[in-house]
Amino acid sequence: MNREIKLAPSILAADFMKLSEQIGECEKNGAAYLHYDVMDGLFVPSLSFGLPVIASIRKGTGIFIDCHLMIVEPYRYIEEFVKAGADSVTIHYEACKEHGCTESLKKIKECGARRGISIRPGTPIVHILPYLGMVDMVLLMSVEPGFGGQPFIPSTYDKLRELTALREEGGFDFDIEVDGGITLDNVSDVIDAGANVIVSGSSVFKGDIAGNVSRFIEIFKGKQ
Ligand code: DX5
Ligand code: ZN
User: Which residues line ligand 1 at a C-beta cut-off of 6 Å?
Assistant: First the structure.
């Protein structure tokens, strides 16, 4: 199946004084998703933004909001994030303890959003095998979660190929998203390895946003 390739600019790298304008530039130039990174200072060392910011974005735009929860026990906040405007909620396998992944993924579906599961670069894919039949997307982290602007970890290519093969063998139907260190130089290889939802922070928001988004979309067009 030829999956649509989508760009998900990560607003972690945006200028928050110009957030509305910058989101508009992404949307206007062909970004299908907006990637929204929530960090709690526990699952990852950083803090980012939470419910009020996503609620404001939701009021101002109809763009698909792809919410990446880098927080412990994400179950606690699923309903609130969906109510605030998340179209898709991605939880981390490593963060679900008291409420497991199955329970959390069910909750996302009940709330009416798309379900995503993510693993850190060091977590092998085998751990998420039980969940592949109950997700709409798998997010492979290609940097250690927590900070934008880090270099892409090359072992992600093997993980992407492994996951693509597992999807094929199992007859599953999930998108494969990759997040961290994606640039105009490596995005083509990332797509060839199997990803179809591409998160990019620094390579979209640093510099000419309209130009950067357009260049990503041009590369996507060459791949479809
Ligand atoms: C990292 C975040 C990423 C980050 C990507 O924890 O999940 O979404 O914003 O930023 P770049 O593209 O700069 O690596
Ligand atoms: Zn992210």
Answer: 10, 12-13, 35, 37, 68, 143, 145-146, 148-150, 179-182, 199-203
